[in-house]
C-alpha cells in the first residue's frame, strides 16, 4: 500500500463518521432556499453540494482545505494535489513517496499518440487533450475492479489509483498536444528528475534560460487546481462520477464544460483585450489614455474582460500571485505592463460607474499575458493548461465523494406550468 493510500485509509473512516453524524443528527436542517429566479438562473448561489477540497470566500478568494491560497502559493502542484486528497500537506518523506508514485505512471501509451496524430490538423487543442484522456479509459483501475466485484467501501481506493495514474500523465499529454497541433517538432520525452510542473515546462520546448518558465508553470498548475464543487467543470465531472463512471469518463466530461467560452476560455478573451490596447496605442499607453479608453468601452455598452467575479468581492488572489510573479521575473514587457496598469485604472472606474457587483480582477486578467511573455502565444492552447491543473481538483472530489458513498446526483426539475401554479398566476 502506498503512503497516500495509508494516509487516506486512516482519514476515510473519520470522514464517514463525521458525515454520518451530521446527517443523522441534523439531516432536516435547511441550509438553503431556492427562488424562482435561481431556478431560471443556473442555480446560482443555491447551497446544494458538499465540497471539502476547497471553498471560495468573497473576501479571501480561494481557500484550499482551510488554507487561503496566498498562504501556500509557493508549494508544488504535487503538494497541492496531496493536500486536496488528504486535507494535509505532505512532509518531505510523504512528498518524495508521492512524487515517486506519480513518476511510475508518467508514460503515455503509444496508442494515445497514434490517436492524436490521426486527428484533423486543425483540431482544437482541447478536443485533442480531451480525446486523449477518453482514449485511456480502457486502462481504468476502477472499471476493472468494479467488474471484478470490488466492495462499495473500497471504491475510493480504486478511484484514487486512477486519479494518480491519470494526473501523472497529463503534463506529457498536454505538452504533446502543443507540439503536435502547432507543429513544434518531435514530442519531447519527460525528465522525471524534475517536479511535475517543471517537467511540463521542459516538455513544451519553449526557451527557458533562467528557469523562470518552470517557476511559472509550478505557480500556474498549483493555483488553478480547484474552485469549489459548483463550478461548471467540477460539477459536471462529479455528476458523471456519481453514476460510478470512472475518472477517465468523468474528467473528460468535466473538461468539455471547461472548454466553454463562459468558463475556461476567459483568459483568451482577456489577453485579446490587452493586445487590442497595445495595438491601438502602439505600445503601453499612459494611465490617463488607458482610463479614457476604458470609459469609452464602458460607455459603448461593452465590459472590461477579466474584471468582476460571481463570488469574489476582492482582487482574486490568483491574479495577485501572477502580478507578484511578473514583478519579480518579467521586466519591460508591454503586454504585462498594460495588465498592471489596468489594475490601477479599472477598479476606480468601475466603482464610479456603479454597475459592476465587483470591480476587482479575476485570475484571467493576468494569466494569459504572463504566458504570452514566454512565447506561449497560441491562445487556443491556454485552456489545456487550465485543464491539466483543474483535473487535480476534479479527481480529488471524486475520491472524497466515493469515500463518503455520495449517491448519484439527481436534482428535481419542475416545469414552467408548475411554477406558474405555485406562484398563483
Describe this structure in words.
With 425 residues, the protein is mostly helical. The chain has a single domain, classed as Orthogonal Bundle (Citrate Synthase, domain 1). 59% of the residues lie in helices and 2% in strands. It is built from 19 helices and three strands. The protein has helices at residues 3-26, 36-40, 77-86, 92-103, 110-118, 125-135, 141-148, 155-181, 196-204, 212-223, 232-242, 247-258, 266-281, 287-299, 317-329, 334-353, 364-373, 382-403, 416-423; strands spanning 54-57, 61-64, 67-68. Strands 1-2-3 form a three-stranded antiparallel β-sheet. α10 (212-223) runs antiparallel to α15 (317-329). The mean pLDDT is 95.
Annotate the secondary structure layout:
Layout lengths: L2 H24 L9 H5 L13 E4 L3 E4 L2 E2 L8 H10 L5 H12 L6 H9 L6 H11 L5 H8 L6 H27 L14 H9 L7 H12 L8 H11 L4 H12 L7 H16 L5 H13 L17 H13 L4 H20 L10 H10 L8 H22 L12 H8 L2
Antiparallel strand pairs: 1-2, 2-3
Helix pairs in contact: 3-10, 3-18, 5-6, 6-8, 6-12, 7-8, 8-9, 8-18, 9-10, 10-15, 10-18, 11-12, 11-18, 12-18, 13-16, 13-17, 14-16, 15-17, 16-17
Name the average pLDDT: 95
Strand order of the largest sheet: 1-2-3
- The CATH architecture assignment turns out to be Orthogonal Bundle
- The termini sit apart by 62 Å
Largest sheet features: 3 strands, antiparallel
Within the CATH hierarchy, at the fold level, what is the topology?
A: Citrate Synthase, domain 1
Low-pLDDT runs of 5+ residues are: none
Secondary-structure element order, as H and E? HHEEEHHHHHHHHHHHHHHHHH
Taken as a percent bin, the fraction of beta residues is: under 5%
Number of DSSP helical runs: 19
* Range of helix content: 55-70%
Instruction: Indicate the radius of gyration in whole angstroms.
Output: 22 Å
Give the CATH class: Mainly Alpha
CATH superfamily: Citrate Synthase, domain 1
Helix- and strand-based class? mainly alpha
Shape annotation? globular
Number of strands: 3
Number of separate structural domains: 1
Amino acid at each position: 500500500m502506498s503512503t497516500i493510500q495509508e494516509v487516506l485509509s486512516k482519514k476515510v473512516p473519520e470522514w464517514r463518521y463525521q458525515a454520518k453524524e451530521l446527517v443523522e443528527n441534523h439531516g432536516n436542517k435547511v441550509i438553503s432556499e431556492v427562488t424562482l429566479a435561481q431556478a431560471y438562473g443556473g442555480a446560482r448561489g443555491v447551497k446544494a453540494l458538499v465540497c471539502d477540497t476547497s471553498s471560495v470566500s468573497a473576501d479571501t478568494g480561494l481557500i484550499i482545505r482551510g488554507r487561503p491560497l496566498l498562504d501556500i502559493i509557493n508549494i508544488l502542484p504535487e503538494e497541492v494535489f496531496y493536500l486536496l486528497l488528504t486535507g494535509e500537506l505532505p512532509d518531505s518523506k510523504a512528498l518524495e513517496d508521492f512524487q515517486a508514485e506519480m513518476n511510475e505512471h508518467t508514460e503515455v501509451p503509444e496508442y494515445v499518440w497514434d490517436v492524436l496524430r490521426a486527428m484533423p490538423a486543425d483540431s482544437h487543442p482541447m478536443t485533442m487533450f480531451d480525446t486523449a484522456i477518453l482514449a485511456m479509459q480502457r486502462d481504468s483501475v476502477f472499471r476493472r475492479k468494479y467488474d471484478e466485484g470490488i466492495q462499495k467501501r473500497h471504491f475510493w481506493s480504486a478511484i484514487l489509483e486512477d486519479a494518480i495514474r491519470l494526473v501523472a500523465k497529463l503534463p506529457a499529454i498536454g505538452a504533446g498536444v502543443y507540439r503536435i497541433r502547432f507543429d513544434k517538432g518531435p514530442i519531447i520525452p519527460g525528465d522525471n528528475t524534475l517536479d511535475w510542473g517543471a517537467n511540463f515546462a521542459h516538455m513544451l520546448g519553449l526557451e527557458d534560460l533562467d528557469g523562470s518558465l518552470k517557476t511559472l508553470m509550478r505557480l500556474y498548475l498549483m493555483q488553478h487546481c480547484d474552485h469549489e464543487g459548483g463550478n461548471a467543470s467540477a460539477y459536471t465531472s462529479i455528476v458523471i462520477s456519481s453514476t460510478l463512471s470512472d475518472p477517465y469518463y468523468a474528467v473528460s466530461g468535466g473538461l468539455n464544460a471547461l472548454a466553454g467560452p463562459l468558463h475556461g476560455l476567459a483568459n483568451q478573451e482577456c489577453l485579446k483585450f490587452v493586445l487590442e490596447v497595445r495595438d491601438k496605442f502602439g505600445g503601453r499607453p499612459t494611465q490617463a489614455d488607458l482610463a479614457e479608453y476604458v470609459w469609452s468601452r464602458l460607455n459603448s455598452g461593452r465590459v472590461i474582460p477579466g474584471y468582476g467575479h460571481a463570488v469574489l468581492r476582492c482582487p482574486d488572489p490568483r491574479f495577485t500571485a501572477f502580478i507578484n510573479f511578473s514583478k519579480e521575473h518579467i521586466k519591460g514587457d508591454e503586454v504585462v505592463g498594460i495588465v498592471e496598469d489596468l489594475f490601477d485604472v479599472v477598479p476606480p472606474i468601475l466603482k464610479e460607474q456603479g454597475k459592476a457587483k465587483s470591480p476587482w480582477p479575476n485570475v484571467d486578467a493576468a494569466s494569459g499575458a504572463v504566458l504570452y511573455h514566454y512565447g506561449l502565444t497560441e491562445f487556443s492552447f491556454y485552456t489545456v493548461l487550465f485543464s491539466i491543473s483543474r483535473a487535480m481538483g476534479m479527481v480529488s472530489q471524486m475520491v472524497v465523494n466515493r469515500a463518503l458513498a455520495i449517491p448519484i446526483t439527481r436534482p428535481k426539475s419542475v416545469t414552467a406550468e408548475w411554477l406558474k401554479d405555485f406562484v398563483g398566476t
